[in-house]
């Protein structure tokens, strides 16, 4: 007797329009053994994969994605499929952990969002996302004696005059830090203005904290820009000029990316239990999916 097949869910990576997407079948996707495939939904085509319900049901998925290594593996696999699809057709990335109870529910949910998805596809067709980050170096640490005085929080033992001199030095250092911070913020704004002049859309993202940047620099601008294809040379030339002029900051460019930050199509967190989309398990959705992979080539 043939054993019954284990129940599966439909995992959706992205929504496309047009393009020859058969090459996606060669991708491992999430490594479930099922092929990455396409699912027609009216004028839209979803890129999906069957995944076992036992491993991707709501509680199982929460456990899986609470493991940092497993979360990174899933995010990279998700990003790989989206990147491959975007190379073949206009593609709206869906959030990590977008799951439906079956193909029929997936078609129904995408049909409910057909207009917003088509609008998103119109917005991103012929365009790519680029990321620009601006960092302010924190500079060398204070001299050992000054650092010890600051740590003690007390004036040197050489009388009132020495105490006033110490306080003056503390105030001078504080003013210097504030002035440096102001200069770096102004430099970051000039970078943003210059890149926005080339872009059709721009979005500010949350700067990274010290756990990502390290202790020797501060993240002052984290932005995404949607540019027409073919403007890469202008973008790189503009940033090269800015790097020469804005010596108080470090400027980094990443991309081109699938348009994660500009693919908002009214996708709601309706819960897998109802057969809908669950894009809320990992934080901020598609923009975070991209940031999770930025340490490696797309």
Helix and strand layout, with pairings?
Layout: E1 8-16, E2 36-41, E3 44-52, H1 53-56, H2 58-66, H3 68-86, E4 91-93, E5 99-100, H4 103-112, H5 114-124, E6 127-137, H6 144-152, H7 159-196, E7 201-204, H8 210-213, E8 217-228, H9 232-245, E9 250-257, H10 286-291
Antiparallel strand pairs: 1-3, 1-4, 1-5, 2-3, 6-8, 6-9, 7-8
Which descriptor suits the 3D outline?
elongated
Q: What class would the helix/strand composition place it in?
A: alpha+beta
N-to-C SSE string, H for helix and E for strand:
EEEHHHEEHHEHHEHEHEH
Mean pLDDT equals 82
- Based on DSSP secondary structure assignment, what is the total number of beta strands? 9
- Beta percentage is 15-25%
Helix count from the secondary structure assignment: 10
Compute the separation of the termini in Å.
46 Å
Helix content: 40-55%
Give start-end ranges of low-pLDDT stretches. Answer: 141-148, 265-286
Radius of gyration equals 25 Å
Largest sheet: 5 strands, antiparallel
């Amino acid at each position: 007797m043939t054993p019954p097949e284990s129940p599966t869910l439909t995992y959706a990576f992205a929504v496309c329009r047009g393009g020859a997407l058969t090459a996606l079948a060669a991708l491992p996707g999430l490594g479930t053994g099922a092929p990455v495939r396409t699912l027609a939904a009216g004028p839209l085509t979803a890129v999906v994969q069957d995944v076992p319900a036992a491993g991707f049901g709501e509680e199982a998925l929460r456990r899986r994605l609470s493991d940092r290594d497993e979360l990174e593996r899933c995010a990279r696999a998700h990003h790989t499929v989206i990147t491959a699809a975007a190379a073949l057709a206009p593609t709206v990335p869906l959030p990590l952990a977008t799951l439906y109870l079956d193909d029929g529910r997936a078609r129904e949910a995408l049909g409910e969002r057909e207009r917003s998805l088509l609008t998103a596809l119109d917005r991103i067709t012929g365009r790519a996302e680029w990321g620009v980050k601006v960092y302010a170096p924190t500079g060398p640490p204070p001299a050992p004696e000054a650092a010890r005085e600051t740590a003690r929080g007390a004036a040197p033992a050489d009388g009132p005059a020495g105490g006033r001199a110490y306080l003056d030095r503390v105030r001078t250092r504080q003013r210097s830090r504030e002035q440096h911070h102001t200069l770096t913020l102004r430099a970051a704004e000039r970078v943003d203005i210059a890149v926005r002049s080339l872009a059709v859309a721009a979005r500010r993202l949350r700067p990274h904290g010290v756990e990502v940047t390290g202790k020797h620099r501060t993240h002052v601008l984290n932005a995404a820009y949607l540019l027409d294809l073919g403007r890469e040379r202008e973008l790189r030339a503009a940033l090269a000029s800015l790097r020469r002029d804005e010596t108080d900051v470090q400027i980094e460019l990443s991309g081109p990316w699938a348009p994660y930050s500009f693919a908002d199509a009214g996708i709601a967190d309706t819960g897998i239990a109802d057969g809908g989309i669950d894009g809320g398990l990992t934080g901020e959705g598609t923009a975070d999916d991209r940031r999770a992979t930025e340490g490696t080539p797309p």
